[in-house]
Each structure stands twice: as C-alpha cells, then as structure tokens.
Amino acid sequence: MSSLTFAQQFGIKAGMNVSSLSSEEGLENQKSKIGFNAGLFMNAPIAANFSIQPELIYTQYGDKYNANVLGNNYSFTRNLDYIALPVMFQYNATPSFYLEAGPEFGLLVSAKNKLTNQDTNNVIDESRNYKDDLNSFNFGLGLGAGYYFTPNIGLTARYVAGFTDIAKDRPTGSSVKNNAFQVGLAYKF
Predict the structure, then answer these.
(1) What CATH code would you report for 2-188?
(2) What residues contact 125, with CB distance under 8 A and at least 6 apart?
C-alpha cells in the first residue's frame, strides 16, 4: 500500500468541448457549440488496476442556434463558463489504456450571449454577464476513456451529462441541462 501512495502523478490537460444544452422548447434549430477545457489533475493508484483522478479545470459549455428573421440569417450563442472539479475513477485495462467514470461538480463563473448576423458576419449584441440569473452549481456524470502513447503524453475522451437545471427559476416539468463531449491531450509530469 505504501508503494501506491508514492506512485501518484500530477499533470496538465487541455482540449476541445462540443457542448449542447438539453432541448429547450421552441428551439428547433439548436446546435452544438465548440469550446475548450484546460486544467490540472492528480492521478493516484488505489489498487492494482484502479486509480482515482481528481481534476480542476476551466470548461466552456453552452449551445448555439440559428434563425431566419425577415430574410436575414442570425446565430445566437450561449456561452456558459465553469470551474469544474471532476473526480474520475479509472480502470486501467492495460498500462496505456483506461476507462473512467465519475461525478463532475461545477461552479458557474460567466454566462454571456452573443447574437451575430450570419449574412454580414457582424456581431449585433454581446450581452452582459447574466450568471446571477442561473444556477451557480452544476452537477454531472462523466464517462470516458484515454490512451497514453508514452508514459507522459496521452489522448483523452469524455462525455459529461448534466443533471442540474441551468436556470434558477423554471416552471415545473421542464429543465435545461449541460451536455458535453470532450477530447484533448494530457501530460503527466
């Protein structure tokens, strides 16, 4: 057990998010939004083939949708930025490949909208930060896998399904939740 204690490794990771919000009523043209994630992690073995990996990351969620108004095409983007703490439990199938699952706890740091005229590529409006109108806490579940090409450099992939409604006050029976597919690179020191 003492050898497992000293085997912990620290690292950094960064990658791309393809995020969306669970379908909101009346938004037929809802699409995914590209964002990024970056942060730190610690990987600690807890058994021969199992480890725990807590992370502290900055991650961008949100969505995008398009509309045609009076012959003009518009794009509306919701940008929801979080500081997240995923705690992944990993099964190391081989020394290089792992599967993971675990909870993700997030704190909303910014919420801004952007309206763009697609025909002229002009930004019409970038809203104020309206994070006080939304739930500041986000809870989700992550499922993923990773592969280390070398002992230090690896490729990661994870899907995060949100369980918390992003809005503070919403009529009963409806909710809008964060969802994201993440891919990226990890580097262990």
Answers:
(1) 2.40.160.20
(2) 113, 114, 115
